[in-house]
Amino acid sequence: MTHRPLQPDDRPVLEALLRNNPYKQIQIQLQELDPHKLVQFHTESILSQSEDPDSPIWLFERGERFGIIGCHFCETHSSFFDVPIYSIEPVVTYRLRTEEKLELFSHIGDILEARGARIVWGKCEEQEGDLASCLIQMGGAFCGTGVRLSRKISDKNRPAANPALQIRFAHPEDLPALKLLAGRNHTHSHFFRDPNLPDERKKNIFPSYLEKCYGQPHRPLLAACGENNEILGFSLLLCPARQEEKLGQTVGIVDFIVVRTDLHGQGVGSSLLAASLDLLEERGYRYVELKTMLDNFQAINFYQKQGFRLLSAEMHFSIGGILGKWM
After folding, report:
1. What's the count of helices (H) and strands (E) in the chain, helices before strands?
2. What is the dihedral of CA 301, 186, 238, 191, to 10 degrees?
3. Any idea where the domains of the chain sit in the sequence?
4. Disulfide check for 177: which of 198, 220, 231, 269 has CB 3.0–4.6 Å away?
5. Any idea which fold 2-138 has?
6. Tell me, which fold does domain 151-314 have in CATH?
7. Cross-strand bridge partners of residue 225
8. pLDDT single digits (tens) 152-208
């Protein structure tokens, strides 16, 4: 199998790979995306990454079969965890055979080792069992399956808000309580299951992330308050720009909703979700999506009752550190 760096002239091959990707069809249908715009958006994103010397992408070819694989330096996470972290992305290999995929991952492994990677993250669709096998053979530790769920905001099945609660935009003086809540109660993430990340830093990843997002115009932060302005929970949103141009659709994102554990089942989460949908609708979004872990049964059951449907399921792996060849 031949391989070479992805070039701008490879656009037709890349577009064909993305256009026929079977793992994107459910998302296109459920969110009513424009397939042509989606292909163009991802094509531009991948070609842009290929121009970055820290995030190269390779095109693999054998006869009529093509695939692409790249690596990306995770600057923010590397800085936070104080260790060089890379992710294997993009990975579009559905047209290749299993033994050819193994050859790809062996190639990318050698490159990452030469670059000094200490931790490498990889992920694949749950249906791509052979890709999961490749990541395991590279020394990957399974860190759980993340799921994406989505719904149309205007659908009638809207969550009921608790009128006794106040939902408002977070204030600067709320940050200490919000960060404490994020550290204690947001525990369903592949980060916490990664055996290669330093444990002493894991507990601070979401409080630090929350503080970094606060105040950004496209990252609204809603707080649920009880008596005496006590913080009971919060919802962090992401409001992407230019989506009609990129996707032919507008999709707002609930980054995460966190509620005090002792208040589960008392309408705090429903009230935050209701306020989040109202805000996204006011800003012109027609769909909303969110992520959680597959084994977070309580959250998935809650969101499905609110009209959310499954978009995709991705298996997360971590290579290196105490397990992989980058030891």
Report:
1. 12, 12
2. -100
3. 2-138, 151-314
4. 231
5. Aminopeptidase (3.40.630)
6. Aminopeptidase (3.40.630)
7. 166, 231
8. 999 988 888 888 899 999 999 999 999 999 999 888 899 999 999 999 999 999 999
